Each structure stands twice: as structure tokens, then as C-alpha cells.
């Protein structure tokens, strides 16, 4: 565990020195969240917070992890790490841990901002814990899968687009209906399950099992694609 | 028990066979060099030993372990210098070395590692600002951290200036004296001659010659070279002539002492001075050029 932490801390150090990535991971979701929150008074606060949460996971974990993994592979850093004593899961954990922690901190910050903007306190706050855990793991898993098809950091701007759009669109779709009207199909979309789970933390709703299952399914898809296709060094 | 045992190793990239039935072993404390032209299969062989490449066939054992299935057991005793491993350019040399030390289980002094590779003055410089040679030295510094039992070096001195190369050779010599086993690949034949106890020459994924330096060059003819004299050579010596350039004659013989004596006697008889006269046995370079041609 100490080794994973050592790798994670070095990633934090690198992240701190890479201003562009840092700004993307920190400021973009906050700015988008603020814009959404500014409209919050007109609609359901659960929906507003859920959309902010989806943005945090997409920007801070999914897009940043995809970019970072593609860049590290291109730089042959992944290959070097694999020549050491860490196992493959330990390497990935070390590289992704800072992003997961950052996403957690941002989520808390956004929720606090929402309350400051006038949102009520969440009715089922414990539901936000599995939403964060499953949402961040799903985002990391999908990032690994996307990185498998991303040759460079520059290309990541293109390759993240399909999942990005699908997640935002499906989250908006699930949030367009009331909590008790969300269908199984909505839960099985990449953003629908996450958005509904967060909304259920804020407002009383239906079962958390269905949206959680949707997140687990997408985590499994990401895992399976990355298991088959992820490469640790550039193609020869 | 041998530190490395490779039996009938075969590695493929799609339809391309990069390594085709390679066998060798490396004993404890030995320096073993894999030689070959680009694409001969050296790096792929090393990658199979490091567990990076799944063999299509054959068997690889390092310290008696399968390097893919038992990676940790192998890595904790092995220092690896990749031919093209990368660094996070944002970290400094010291941060990179300290991180690498923390990621492994071998205890060692990072400052001492950097000092041995003459990197102390560059310790606080970002890795992305290092020259190619400095990056290679940093690679060596990471590989030797904690004095591993086995050191795998993929072209360790490529890109180094002559002074740095000599210092690296000296360092490798010190490690060998301390009992480290070393497997290296190199393009520099003088490096193999300076360091290796045994060599294997690869061509098209197969070992075409292997053994001690003496073994590899023993079957090769010796060479006598000298500036072409004004008199034609006698028939028996002229028959040994292989080629010449810029007025130089080269004779190849498996009886160096006998034929050199005949040449010198002939020169005395005709009162000739053989200018730029050189005589030497077969070399690793001769063996290498002979098998890769």
C-alpha cells in the first residue's frame, strides 16, 4: 500500500506542475457546476446536484484519467513502471488514486456550494457515498477502456467525446422525469444511473439498487474492454 | 542453479516471428551479452525475460521463477534498464530516483546511486531537461539501486560519450566483482569484449553463434595486414590474400605464426620493410560480421 501511495503522491506532484491538466480537472467542472447551480432555483435541486456530480466524474476522473494514461503510455512511463515491482493493478491504482480523491473533494465542494446557493440538505446523504464510489470507479474503468484506443494525450480530446456525450445526454434524460418515473433503460445508460443515484440522495426516491446496478454494469464493460485491449506501451 | 534459463524461446508479433527457438543460460556472477543487428530479437528476448512479452513457446526461468506468473519474486532481485523506458519529465532527477526507490523493496542510498552515475549536480533538474546521455545514466542509476542480484541492461551505453561509457563499464565491473549477474545487449562489440564472459549472436531471431569470447572467435582466421610491397607475394602467401584497400594487403590464415614467419622471411630475402604491419587473431567483430552478413 505504501508503494501505491508513493506513486499516487508523485502523480499529485506531477499534476500540480501541469497547469493545463490541473485547470481542466479543477476549474472546468467547478465553473460548469456554478452555471448549473445558478439555474437551480428554477428546478429540482436534486437534479442540479446530480448533473454537477456527473460533470465532476466526467471531467475530473474520466477525461483526465484517459488523457493521463495515454500520455504516460506515449512517454513510455507505463512501460517503465511495469519493469519494477508493482503489479499492474497497483500501478493503475497509484496513477488513478489522486484523481479519485480530487473528484471526492470536488464533489463535497460542489455539494457545499449548492447548499450555499439555497439547496436543502440531502435527505439520504449516505446514498451519496455509493454514488461517489461507484461513479468514480465506473469513470476510471471507462477511462482505461477509452485509453486503450487513445494513442496520445491530444487524441484523448476526440476519443472521450462519445462516452462524454452519452453520459451527459443520458443523465439529462434520466433527470427529465421524476425520480419514481426513471426506467430500467435509463438506469442502464452511462449517465442515467449515476444521476439518479445522486438525486435519490438529495430527494426521497425509489430503490438505489437499479441505478447502482447500472453503474456496476458500465464498470464491468469498461473493465472487460480494458482487459482485452489496454496496452502498456505504444504499438510497434 | 542458473540465474537465467531460456529454453526454445519463441516470441511473435502477429504473423512476425521475432525470436525463434532461442536457448541459453546465465550463471551467477556471469556477464552474458546478446549481440545482433537491429531487429535480430535481442530486445524481445529481454522483454520475455522481464515478463513484458508473453512467449509464443518455450520456457523462461529467472531465479527459477516464471517472470510473468511470478513477477514480484523476480523483480525484487532484478534491476532492469530498458532500451526505451520513459520518465515523467515534470519530476526532477532526485524525485525520480527517490520514487523508484520507494516503489521497490531493495534498500539503497539514492544519493549514492546518483553520485555513482555522476548525476549529483543534476539532481534538482527536471528530467525533461536532461540530455540523452544523462537520461541513460539515470536509467542505469535506477537499475542498480539496492544492488540487485541480476541486472538486465538493454544497450546501456547507447548515446553516452566515451568518458561516460568508460565510467559505466567501470561501474558494471564493480557490480560484477560484488557478485551481480548481468545480461546485456549492445551494439558496441568493444563493449561486449570489455565486459562479457560469454556472448550469443542473434540473427533473425535465432542464436547463430554462442560461447566465450575465445570460443566465438577461435574458429575464425587470423589476419595479417601490411602496406603492399613493390614485389609480388609468393604464390603460397598470395593465396591467403582476401582483400585490400588504400594500398593495404590483408592475408587471412588459420596458421598465424607459421604464415607470419614465412611472410617475414620473404620480406628479409627481398630486403623489404613491411610498413604498417599488423597481425592479430580472430576478433568478436570478425565473428559478428561473419554471421550477420
From TrEMBL, chain A:
Keyword Transport: no
Transmembrane segments: 20-38, 50-71, 92-117, 129-151, 163-188, 208-226
ABC-2 type transporter transmembrane domain location: 50-190
Location(s), subcellular: Membrane
Keywords: Membrane, Transmembrane, Transmembrane helix
Record-linked Pfam families: ABC2_membrane_3
InterPro entries: ABC-2_transporter, ABC2_TM
Main location group: membrane
Membrane-topology descriptor: Multi-pass membrane protein
PANTHER family recorded: DOXORUBICIN RESISTANCE ABC TRANSPORTER PERMEASE PROTEIN DRRC-RELATED (PTHR43027), TRANSPORT PERMEASE PROTEIN (PTHR43027:SF2)
Name by which UniProt lists this protein: ABC transporter permease
Provenance organism: Solirubrobacter deserti
From TrEMBL, chain B:
Organism, scientific name: Solirubrobacter deserti
Membrane topology field: Peripheral membrane protein
Keyword annotations from UniProtKB, A to Z: Antibiotic resistance, ATP-binding, Nucleotide-binding, Transport
The organism's place on the tree of life at top rank: Bacteria
Protein name (Swiss-Prot/TrEMBL): ABC transporter ATP-binding protein
Subcellular location(s) per record: Cell membrane
Domain ABC transporter: 4-229
Gene Ontology molecular-function annotations: ATP binding
UniProt entry tagged with the keyword Iron-sulfur: no
One Pfam family matching this protein: ABC_tran
Alphabetized InterPro entries for the sequence: AAA+_ATPase, ABC_transporter-like_ATP-bd, ABC_transporter-like_CS, ABC_transporter_ATP-binding, P-loop_NTPase
UniProt xrefs under PANTHER family: ABC TRANSPORTER ATP-BINDING PROTEIN
UniProt key word Membrane: no
Amino acid at each position: 500500500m505504501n508503494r501505491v501511495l508513493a506513486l499516487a503522491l508523485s502523480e499529485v506532484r506531477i499534476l500540480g506542475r501541469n497547469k493545463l491538466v490541473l485547470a481542466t480537472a479543477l476549474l472546468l467542472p467547478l465553473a460548469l457546476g456554478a452555471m448549473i447551480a445558478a439555474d437551480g432555483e428554477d428546478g429540482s435541486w436534486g437534479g442540479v446536484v446530480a448533473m454537477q456530480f456527473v460533470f465532476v466524474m466526467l471531467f475530473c476522473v474520466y477525461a483526465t484519467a484517459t488523457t493521463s494514461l495515454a500520455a504516460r503510455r506515449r512517454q513510455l512511463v507505463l512501460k517503465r513502471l511495469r519493469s519494477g515491482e508493482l503489479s499492474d493493478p497497483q500501478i493503475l491504482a497509484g496513477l488513478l488514486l489522486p484523481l479519485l480523491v480530487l473528484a471526492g473533494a470536488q464533489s463535497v465542494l460542489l455539494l457545499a456550494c449548492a447548499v450555499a446557493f439555497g439547496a436543502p440538505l440531502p435527505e439520504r446523504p449516505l446514498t451519496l457515498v455509493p454514488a461517489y464510489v461507484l461513479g468514480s470507479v465506473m469513470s476510471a474503468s471507462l477511462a482505461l477502456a477509452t485509453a486503450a484506443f487513445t494513442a496520445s494525450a491530444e487524441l484523448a480530446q476526440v476519443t472521450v467525446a462519445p462516452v462524454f456525450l452519452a453520459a451527459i445526454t443520458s443523465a439529462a434524460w434520466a433527470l427529465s422525469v421524476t425520480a419514481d418515473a426513471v426506467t430500467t433503460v435509463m438506469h442502464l445508460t452511462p449517465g442515467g444511473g449515476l444521476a439518479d443515484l445522486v438525486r435519490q440522495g438529495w430527494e426521497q426516491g425509489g430503490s438505489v439498487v437499479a441505478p447502482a446496478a447500472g453503474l456496476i454494469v458500465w464498470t464491468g464493460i469498461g473493465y472487460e474492454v480494458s482487459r482485452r485491449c489496454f496496452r502498456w506501451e505504444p504499438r510497434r | 542453479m542458473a540465474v537465467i534459463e531460456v529454453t526454445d524461446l519463441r516470441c511473435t508479433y502477429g504473423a512476425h516471428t521475432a525470436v525463434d527457438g532461442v536457448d541459453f543460460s546465465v550463471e551467477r556472477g556471469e556477464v552474458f551479452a546478446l549481440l545482433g543487428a537491429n531487429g535480430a530479437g535481442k530486445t524481445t528476448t529481454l522483454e520475455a525475460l522481464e515478463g513484458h512479452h508473453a512467449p509464443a513457446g518455450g520456457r523462461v526461468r529467472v531465479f527459477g521463477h516464471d517472470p510473468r506468473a511470478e513477477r514480484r519474486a523476480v523483480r525484487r532481485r532484478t534491476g532492469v534498464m530498458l532500451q526505451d523506458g520513459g520518465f515523467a519529465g515534470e519530476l526532477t532527477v532526485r524525485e525520480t530516483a527517490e520514487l523508484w526507490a520507494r516503489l521497490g523493496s531493495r534498500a539503497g542510498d539514492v544519493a549514492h546511486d546518483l553520485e555513482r552515475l555522476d548525476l549529483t549536480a543534476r539532481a534538482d533538474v527536471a528530467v525533461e531537461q536532461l540530455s540523452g546521455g544523462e537520461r541513460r545514466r539515470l536509467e542505469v542509476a535506477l537499475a542498480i539501486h539496492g544492488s540487485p542480484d541480476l541486472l538486465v541492461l538493454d544497450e546501456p551505453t547507447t548515446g553516452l560519450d566515451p568518458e561516460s561509457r568508460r565510467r559505466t563499464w567501470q561501474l558494471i565491473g564493480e557490480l560484477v566483482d560484488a557478485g551481480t549477474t548481468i545480461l546485456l545487449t549492445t551494439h558496441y562489440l568493444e563493449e561486449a569484449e570489455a565486459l562479457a564472459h560469454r556472448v550469443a549472436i542473434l540473427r533473425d531471431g535465432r542464436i547463430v553463434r554462442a560461447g566465450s569470447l575465445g570460443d566465438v572467435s577461435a574458429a575464425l582466421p587470423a589476419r595479417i595486414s601490411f602496406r603492399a610491397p613493390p614485389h609480388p607475394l609468393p604464390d603460397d602467401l598470395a593465396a591467403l590474400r582476401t582483400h585490400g584497400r588504400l594500398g593495404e594487403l590483408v592475408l587471412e590464415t588459420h596458421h598465424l605464426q607459421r604464415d607470419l614467419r614465412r611472410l617475414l622471411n620473404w620480406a628479409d630475402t627481398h630486403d623489404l620493410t613491411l610498413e604498417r604491419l599488423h597481425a592479430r587473431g580472430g576478433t568478436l567483430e570478425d565473428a559478428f560480421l561473419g554471421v550477420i552478413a
